[in-house]
Amino acid sequence: MSKSVVLLIFFSVAAAWRPVAAVADSHGDTLSQWIDQRGEQLWGKPPAACSDLTFVRRVYLDLVGRVPSVSEIRDFQTLGDDRRELLVNELVFGEGPRREAYTRLSASSLARHWRRVLIPPGTVVNGSVQGLETWLEDAFREAKPYDEMMREIAQIQSPDSAGGYYRLVGGTPESYAGNLSRVMLGVRLDCAQCHDHPFTDWKQHDFWGLAAFYSDINGSIDNPDGSQPTGKSGEIRFEGETYRAKVLWEDTAMDDAARAPRVRLARWMTSRENPNFAATAVNRFWQLLVGRGLYADIENLDLANDDERAFLDDLGQKFADDGFHVQRLIAAICKTNWYAARALSESDSDETFRRELKVISPEQVFDSLEQSLHLPISRIDPAAPRWTGARAQMVNRLGEAIGETPEDYASGIPQALMMMNGPVTSDAIDLDRSRLLRAVVESPFFDEDKRIETLYLAVLTREPSEAEKRSLTEYLDNKPDETTRRKAFGEILWALLNSPEFVLCR
Amino acid sequence: MSMTRPFETFSRRELFRIAAASLGGISCSPWLPKLAMAAGTKRPPKACILLWMGGGPSQMETLDPKPGHRNGGPTEAISTAVPGIELSHNLPGLATQMKDVALVRSMKTREGDHGRATQLMMTGYRPMGGMTDYPVLGSLISHRLKPNDSPLPGFVSIAPFRFGNLGSGFLGPDHSPLVVSGASNDPNTRANLTVENLDVAGGNPDALLERQGLLNMLRQGAPSSSPAAVKHASVYDQAMRMVETRGEGAFELDEEPTELRDAYGRNRFGQGCLLARRLVERGVPFVEVSLDAAGQGSWDSHVNNFSAVSSMCEVLDPAWSTLLSDLRDRGLLDSTLVVWMGEFGRTPRINPNRGRDHFPDAWSVALSGGAISGGQVYGKTSADGMEVSDNPVTASDLYATLLEGLGIDSGGDNAMGDRPIPLVDEGGTPIRELLG
User: Fold this and answer.
1) Structure ipTM over 0.95, yes or no
2) CA distance A400 to B319
3) Which one is predicted more confidently, A408 or B161?
4) A499 touching chain B per CB within 8 A
5) Which Pfam families is this protein grouped with (chain B) (predicted)?
6) What is the pTM of this model?
7) Please, what CATH class does the domain formed by B46-434 belong to?
8) Which residues contact A32 (CB under 8 A, 6 or more apart)?
9) Testing the interface with A: which of B11, B197, B238, B241 to mutate, by most A Cβ within 10 A?
10) Domain map of chain A by residue range?
11) Which of A116, A171, B49, B98 could be B81's S-S partner, Cβ–Cβ 3.0 to 4.6 Å?
12) At what angle do helices A362-372 and A390-399 cross, to 10 degrees?
């Protein structure tokens, strides 16, 4: 009952703001069909769909940031014919009995993704990124429209606004300008900081024209070789030249650039007329969910061909028409045949649709381990690994090696050693300490097949293949006594946790 | 260990089969010394050991003393094995090795902040906002010189201490450092120099073979042509070989004669230098050993510079000089470039706290081994130490020289996507006088 009241309020508010599309397509279903058709025009027939279990694993990882529990898998299997759509609605819009949990998890999962978009791995940051992540999480939980979020980032009035993003990325107009154009417009201008760009059309005055919008933000670091404020807002000096605030794709500086420059920049940046804003946004969401952008070289949008660009522009337009509603865009993408396609191996052509395995993030690794291994997660249990520092340790170590796109596996030997021999794994395969092993091995209701199957479901969200079952049965049968046989389940669990499948999303 | 039938169908890697066949299984210790000896007999390819002096050591208390000048303070100069070349009295051991050491006394850089200067000296590139994530020297060398078949990584970093979080950058995790921690200074154990997570989970080394078998079975389940799955398998296989061979025994420092261990110094840096030699012997192309704080000292000597530097040198000098003689005795010095540097030098003027502050205008580094021709001084500072009076050397020049010293063409590029990135930042010229 209360849900329908909430929905009613939601609809009337939505209707007041975004008259038509929102009500007609409250769960992104129409947009999803449109994407399916548009994709077929570009790529031809979609590949075969993935299995149900693969789909469940995918959406749980993508939307709430961890693998599903065995009971969530069972629940899904009872949902009926349109179970995939229902599950997406449950996880994206928090429909159903676990509303609180899913809403919280999906907001924090999105915030983590976007924190990495805003501050890519490898960036030397000034301070902790937690403030920025919290800011993002609040915005996603409130379902703040995407253009509004980005406007707040673009029109900051102090280095601490918008989660302190300005300060984090270096606290200079030039570093902010480089990041904003990369994040929001899908163009890399940094080369033009020192000279006109050698490969694209960007000129030095494009770069510094953008940096000039931020010339009067305080809190810049002292860097004698960097930009110098001129004392006037909307104006900046670099190596003897003065540049006035100018937006991209314009030849001349703004009139009266000192008048509220950042408010005007933010409005231009996020407007529907901006040629790159919405297109870059939908491309980023597509990349987060599918692995590869609709146009793969996501921060060099200038280089997309006409067909790719047209798809992005059209989808971007739909996103804008729907009031930049992030959750509906996500639901729409997740309901397409493209999202649901089976993972394909690499093809020779860039022209066709490809879906590779994705590598899960450091936080997803830990949160999935927590789920799979039944680690204690209660917020008041101080012994839970989440709160003892085990999570931070694992996330930091894995965070040292993150790929540039969701498809790059970038971990090295230290990361592999941690997964193989680290404390979480050691506990997990120890019969006395592992909750999962105890539950599985000591349950009187399970025969050995059932035990193997449950371990597979808990860790990999799939059932063992016939060949795997045969191998494992023989492996167990070869154990001389009951003790070594029980211990062998620990070895099987070790292998599941260290298999490529665990850290990849099929 | 008897294997079950299905496991025989797993394509286990060659090494496991060899280990099982020739040594009767994989239980650890008995065959390790053999393996280590075998590793020692191979002639290793070129390598580089970086002695990283994070914090910025004072040139005037080390390589460029100024006795008799007010700026020189109480530091005395001593003669060395090469007539005419003098060092600070803090480095008597190094003085005996001078024939193999080339001093560069004319470093001239522009970064006086720890973070930015570290970035400059560790990557050879000036720090710039955004854009390119340049790899550190170790990753650059690993990328160039790492042997394909080694179970050890191409870049090992011992007890690292640096200002700023730098890594392999665009060269990726294959070339990021394997960190050897050194949390304690306990002189009697090697527990202070270990690789994290090298012990087999569950404490049973025999489990390793079974685990590899199970893993191979599970790998069939992942789409095998997926680049991510292929990469995962190769990284895991390497990590498993590290665990299995305990890093080819490199970390068993107690195999070394007591006198040699004593000569290096029974401290983290000294034993780290010894470990560096053992790693180089086993084909690791780049090892970084950091000396940041010894006892109460630190290279960042804003206060009490003279006692701080002398306490640092008590640790540095025996380790450094023993490393050079040890490498020479083993015939490794010609193939191993040893670089000593920090991120900048210290102000010649002594501040009111008897300290010296950050100074990038005129400072020193030292090179030995590889193609470096030792027993010489390159460049010169003015009598007061305030400026370079002869042959200034930039970070790019130094990088070009280091690469040439290892036989790498310093005019070459790194491929990053479709875009070539020069190995050395613009304007770097190798110093021919230093290259034999």
Assistant:
1) no
2) 31
3) A408
4) yes
5) DUF1501 (PF07394)
6) 0.82
7) alpha beta
8) A331, A332, A333, A335, A336
9) B197
10) 150-269, 277-324
11) B98
12) 140
